[in-house]
Amino acid sequence: MFRLLPPATLGALIFTTIAAAAAAPVIEPRTPRALTEEDTAEVVDFIVGNAVFALYHQTGHLLINRYGAQPKGMSEERAADFFATLTLLEPRSGTGDQTLVDAIDSWKLGGPGTLSIVADDAGRRNPHALDETRTNALVCDMVGADPEGFADIAEAAGLDPAARRLCGATWKREQAAWKAAAKGLPPAPAKPQTFAVAYETAAPEDETAATILEDNGVLEEVADNLAERFAFKNPPTLRARSCGMASTRFDVEANELVLCYELSTLHAEMIMRDIEQRN
Q1: Strand, coil or helix: 119
Q2: By C-alpha distance, which of 278, 257, 212 is closest to 29?
Q3: Omega before 7 within 30 of 0, i.e. cis
Q4: Can you tell me whether residue 20 is helix, strand or coil?
Q5: How many domains does the chain contain in total?
Q6: Confidence at residue 178, expressed as pLDDT on a 0 to 100 scale
Q7: Hey, is 185 helix, strand or coil?
Q8: In terms of DSSP H, where are the helices of the chain?
Q9: Can you give the three-state secondary structure of 204-265, one letter per residue?
Q10: Spatial contact of 113 and 120, defined as CB atoms under 8 Å apart
Q11: Do 236 and 227 touch, CB atoms closer than 8 A?
């Protein structure tokens, strides 16, 4: 679904940009080496997957704020996560599954310190950064949707066996709650709309992430999917830009789903650090 950049080109971009970064944690490989094709694919997939999940999460906030689509008993953050998960699991696809795994891994790779890393110079934290509770809920959603198919994900995530047995019932209950809350959402259109997308110029330290996002058509991919699902009277713009912190948001006043380049740069650093530690 996403086009990969040529391995040699991406390898040069990743190492050059991450070493030059000043506004984010600097990851410098202890033993610099050329990226293999497998490394390249993993880096790109991780950046893209987390960007897609973030955009669907923010779409959940849009649906909640504009149409009141918040299931009873769910916090707004949980409801936004559930919309993203439901979107990626229905219909099932290998890409959708991997996107959810990437989102889960972003917390696993960052660990508890991720919440303190994802902050601007004033110390403002990103309220949308995944924590352990939300990550386990994502794993439970996947297991509830397909207990056998996602058993290895539950094992790798260390989901408690007792909690895992309840995931099927939880998934069904949440689906019913979402269906009730979604009654006021726009129907699927007879003809898909055109959503505006915009990739703003990135700061030098975020150019690698910006290149990967734009060359893989991340905004367009999400926009096309939403255009097929909802007949919005006022479709949101999907915008990638520099924000001053690693975050995403639904900008109510501007009617925009915003993906911050800094977040994708952070994801690049996370996966590069993991690749470094494996070799």
Answers
A1: strand
A2: 278
A3: no
A4: helix
A5: 1
A6: 96
A7: coil
A8: 7-20, 37-67, 76-89, 94-110, 114-117, 132-145, 151-157, 161-165, 167-181, 207-215, 218-229, 261-278
A9: HHHHHHHHHHHHCCHHHHHHHHHHHHCCCCCCCEEEEECCCCCCEEEECCCCEEEEEHHHHH
A10: no
A11: no
Question: What are the tens digits of pLDDT across the range 175-198?
Answer: 999 999 999 999 999 998 899 999
Sheet holding 197-199, edge to edge: 197-199, 237-241, 256-260, 248-251
270/167 Cα distance (integer angstroms): 29
27, 58, 83, 194 from 141: Cα distances, Å: 33, 18, 11, 31
Whether 9 is in a domain gets the answer: no
Report how far residue 130's alpha carbon sits from residue 110's, in angstroms, rounded to the nearest whole number: 10
Q: Which two tokens stand for residue 122?
A: 């004033």
Q: Tens of pLDDT along 98-143? A: 999 999 999 888 754 443 333 334 444 455 467 788 889 999 999 9
* d(C-alpha 211, C-alpha 244), whole Å: 18
Q: Cα–Cα distance between 261 and 246 in angstroms, integer?
A: 7
Q: Is residue 108 assigned to a domain?
A: yes
* Distant-in-sequence, close-in-space partners of 160: CB < 8 Å, separation ≥ 6: none
Token digits of residue 64: 């909640």
**For residue 119, what are its two tokens?**
């902050």
**Is 46 part of a structural domain of the chain?**
yes
Neighbours of 151 (CB within 10 A): 14
CA triplet 141, 145, 147: central angle to 5 degrees?
100
Note the pTM of the prediction, 2 decimals.
0.85
197 falls within a domain: no
Among 237, 162, 158, smallest CA distance to 195 is for 237
Average pLDDT, the chain: 84
Task: List the domain range (segments joined by +) for residue 49.
Answer: 34-184
* Locus of tokens 């040069």: 12
